[in-house]
Design a protein that fits this description.
Length: about 350
C-alpha cells in the first residue's frame, strides 16, 4: 500500500498525500487500494536526461514528441499516413498477418504488422475472431480498463495567482508555475473519499487535481501574457449513476466544480478563463481510442502487469496471430511516456523478420 510506504519515509500529511497522487494517477484506485503502490513506483522509477525520478515538459507540446519520432522514422525510409483508418488485419491462408485493410478498402501489404492500438481494439475489433484462441479473446475482454480521468485544457488571459505564493508584480512565471501543482491533496483521506464517490457513479465533489502550466516554460504555446493550463483530474466514472450519459450539462457541471476548487486556491482563476476543452472518460475513448478512457490501455494492477500484460503467455509482444505484434501501452511494461513497449516490440519483430 502506498500510504504504508509513505508513512515509513515522511511525517507531513500534505506531502504524503501529494506523493500518493502518483500511486493513483490514471487508476480507478485509492491510496488504500492494495497493489497501488506499484503505480507509485512506476511513476518515480524513470529518469530524464540522467536525473532519476525527474519529469519534463516537451517543447512545443506533447504533439512535438510525436513529430520528432515521425521525423526520425521518415529519415530512415518510413512512410507515414494519417487519417487512414484501419478496417482489419489482413491474414493469409496460413493464418499469418500479411498487412492491413483500410476502411476505404485499400490493402497495405507487409510481412509484419505492429499495432500501437489497445489490446481490445487490436484483437477484438481489427483481428478476425476465428483466428484467435477463445481463452485469449476472453482474457482480452476481461481486461480492467476503468478510468477515473477527466482532462480539462484551459486557455487563460493571465497567470494564476495562488494565495500560498502570489504572483510577482511583473506577472512573470515563478518557480512553482513551472512545476506540477497538486490541489485537493492535503490529506490521503481526501483522495480516498474522492475515489469512493466515483465508485458509486458520482464525479468527485472535491476532485484530485494536477495542474500544469506548460506555457510558463514554453511561451510559444500561447500569445504574450496568456497561458495554457492543463488540469488532470479524477475521479470521474465512465458511466454515471443511473446510467446517465456524460452530456454537455454533466461535463460543464463537473468542470465548474473543478474551477471552483482552483478558485479556492487561486482567486481570480475563473475570471481569467477564455476557453476550455473538457474530455471525460467516454471522450478520451472516442477521440483517442483509449478503452474506457484509460490512459494506460488497461489498469496497471498487479494482475495485469509483467507476464500477464496483456495476457499470460503473450507478454513478449507476439500475439496468437503470427506476424502480428502489440507495441503500445497495453504491452509490457505498460503506460507512460517512455517508449519501452515500442522499442522492445521492434526488437522482437526484427528478430522474427530475420528468420522469414
Amino acid at each position: 500500500l502506498p500510504d504504508q510506504i509513505l508513512d515509513q519515509w515522511f511525517e507531513s500529511e500534505p506531502l504524503k498525500a501529494t506523493l500518493a497522487t502518483d500511486a493513483v494517477i490514471g487508476a480507478m484506485a485509492s491510496p488504500h487500494t492494495p497493489g497501488s503502490g506499484y503505480v507509485l513506483l512506476h511513476h518515480v522509477m524513470g529518469e530524464l536526461e540522467g536525473r532519476r525520478g525527474a519529469w519534463g515538459y516537451v517543447a512545443g507540446g506533447m504533439g512535438a514528441l510525436s513529430q520528432a519520432i515521425a521525423s526520425a522514422a521518415a529519415a530512415r525510409g518510413a512512410h507515414i499516413f494519417t487519417e487512414k483508418a484501419v478496417g482489419h488485419v489482413l491474414l493469409g491462408k496460413d493464418g499469418r498477418a500479411q498487412g492491413v485493410v483500410l476502411q476505404d478498402g485499400t490493402e497495405v501489404r507487409s510481412k509484419l504488422v505492429l499495432s500501437n492500438a489497445s489490446p481490445q481494439i487490436t484483437f477484438l475489433e481489427l483481428t478476425p475472431q476465428e483466428e484467435l484462441p477463445k481463452d485469449f479473446v476472453q482474457r482480452i475482454q476481461q481486461i480492467d480498463t476503468r478510468s477515473p480521468v477527466t482532462k480539462i485544457n484551459v486557455a487563460v488571459d493571465r497567470l494564476p495567482s495562488f494565495l500560498a505564493a502570489p504572483n510577482a508584480s511583473n506577472g512573470r512565471p515563478l518557480p512553482h508555475h513551472q512545476c506540477s501543482i497538486h490541489l485537493n491533496c492535503e490529506d490521503t483521506h481526501l483522495l480516498h473519499q474522492a475515489f469512493t464517490e466515483a465508485t458509486d457513479g458520482h464525479p468527485s465533489s472535491r476532485p484530485m487535481i494536477e495542474l500544469c502550466i506548460p506555457s510558463a516554460l514554453d511561451p510559444g504555446l500561447a500569445p504574450w501574457g496568456c497561458h495554457v493550463v492543463s488540469l488532470f483530474t479524477q475521479y470521474t466514472p465512465s458511466v454515471l449513476a443511473g446510467g446517465r450519459p456524460w452530456d454537455e450539462q454533466a461535463r460543464n457541471a463537473y468542470a465548474d466544480r473543478v474551477f471552483d476548487c482552483v478558485e479556492d486556491y487561486a482567486p481570480g482563476f475563473k475570471a481569467s478563463v477564455i476557453g476550455r476543452d473538457i474530455l471525460t472518460p467516454p471522450d478520451l475513448e472516442k477521440i483517442f481510442g483509449l478503452p474506457g478512457g484509460n490512459i494506460f490501455h488497461g489498469a496497471m494492477s498487479l494482475d495485469q502487469l509483467y507476464f500477464a500484460r496483456p495476457a499470460p503467455s503473450y507478454s513478449g509482444y507476439r500475439s496468437p496471430v503470427p506476424g502480428l505484434y502489440l507495441c503500445g501501452s497495453g504491452a509490457h511494461p505498460g503506460g507512460g511516456v517512455m517508449g519501452a513497449a515500442g522499442r522492445n516490440a521492434a526488437r522482437v519483430a526484427l528478430e522474427d523478420f530475420r528468420c522469414l
